[in-house]
Design goal:
There is one protein chain. This protein is mostly beta strands and about 290 residues long. Helix content is about 5%, strand content about 60%. It has helices at about 30-35, 140-145, and strands at about 5-25, 40-60, 65-85, 100-105, 110-115, 120-130, 160-170, 175-185, 195, 200-210, 210-225, 225-230, 230, 240-250, 255-270, 275, 280-290. The protein has a twelve-stranded antiparallel beta barrel with strand order 1-2-3-5-6-7-8-10-11-14-15-17. A hairpin with a 2-residue loop joins strand 10 (about 200-210) and strand 11. The protein is elongated.
Length: about 290
């Protein structure tokens, strides 16, 4: 939390790669081509490297109430290859209408949130997203028509509720903390897309060493399956978890630096696709303005 009337500006950057793959079968993958020739079952293998940056402004409305506004900007670098089911290179006769090697850039959905401390050691927050991220037309419909389409989006196109709950307790120089936040889409956008429920969580101990603090936590994410007019959106739906190591450094004059690294331990797909998150690095630089 922040004292009343105090601002905190934070710039955060994160980098990580996400690997997914799924089996493509006729006739859904290319109705026209499947009607003209035999296309064996094959696999789409996608590697998406995400460069995520975020500017956050926090304002202390009172000693127990914090207002937060976030503006994210993402670079999504996608690399695609096609293989047979036994891993050999495969050239699909329908070309790159489903996936292609490309780099996309843009603002993602913003966010406004109020966080309160109802009791010592507790945090509760509520807010909503701002649908400024670019959305796409229904890729399932376009794919069935044999038309090029885009699966990567920067937003949901809807105003989604955001909830947060946190707890912490100090035992001298050692402390424990737990934090969870959720994004809960309630309706579909004008293209028929309803985003997934997303829950992120982190819990673990920390220790203070002078002007530095070290945190070792278990962190994870649950994402439900997104839908296009009720049909499953490929590449969504998973639950993963792993170890997070973070460091918080007081640099003086109101500045603070917080580097971190996350290493996935397990990953489970809810949709039958494979999903793996590579080692993810992060860094946040903040300054308090009294």
């Amino acid at each position: 939390m922040l004292p009343k009337g105090v601002w905190r500006l934070t710039y955060a950057f994160g980098y990580g790669a996400f690997n997914t793959s799924h089996v493509a079968t006729c006739p859904d993958i290319a109705p026209v081509e499947c009607g003209q020739q035999v296309i064996p079952d094959h696999r789409h293998v996608v590697r998406l490297t995400l460069y995520h940056s975020e500017l956050t402004a926090g304002y202390g409305l009172s000693a127990t109430t914090l207002l937060i506004a976030r503006l994210p900007y993402d670079v999504k670098d996608q690399r695609v290859r096609y293989t047979t089911l036994d891993g050999q290179p495969f050239v699909p006769p329908y070309g790159d209408i489903h996936h292609r090697t490309e780099t996309l850039r843009g603002f993602s959905d913003g966010e406004l949130m109020a966080i309160v401390s109802p009791a010592p050691g507790w945090l509760a927050g509520a807010g909503f997203t701002l649908p400024i991220g670019k959305t796409e037309e229904n890729p399932i419909v376009l794919g069935r028509l044999g038309l090029k389409h885009e699966h990567i989006q920067f937003g949901t196109g809807t105003v989604d509720p955001r909830l947060l709950l946190g707890w912490s307790r100090a035992f001298g120089r050692v402390g424990l903390e737990a934090l969870a936040d959720a994004r809960l889409p309630l309706y579909q956008n004008g293209h028929g897309y309803k985003g997934p429920i997303t829950i992120q969580y982190k819990a673990g101990p920390g220790m203070v060493f002078g002007r530095a603090a070290v945190t070792l936590a278990w962190a994870g994410q649950y994402q439900s399956i997104a839908r296009w007019n009720g049909e499953k959106d490929e590449g969504t739906g998973f639950h993963n978890g792993g170890a997070f190591l973070g460091l918080s450094l007081d640099l003086g004059k109101g500045f603070q630096a917080a580097p971190g690294v996350y290493r996935e331990v397990f990953s489970h797909s809810l949709s039958g696709e494979t999903f793996r998150q590579g080692t993810t690095w992060s860094l946040a630089i903040s300054r308090v303005f009294p």
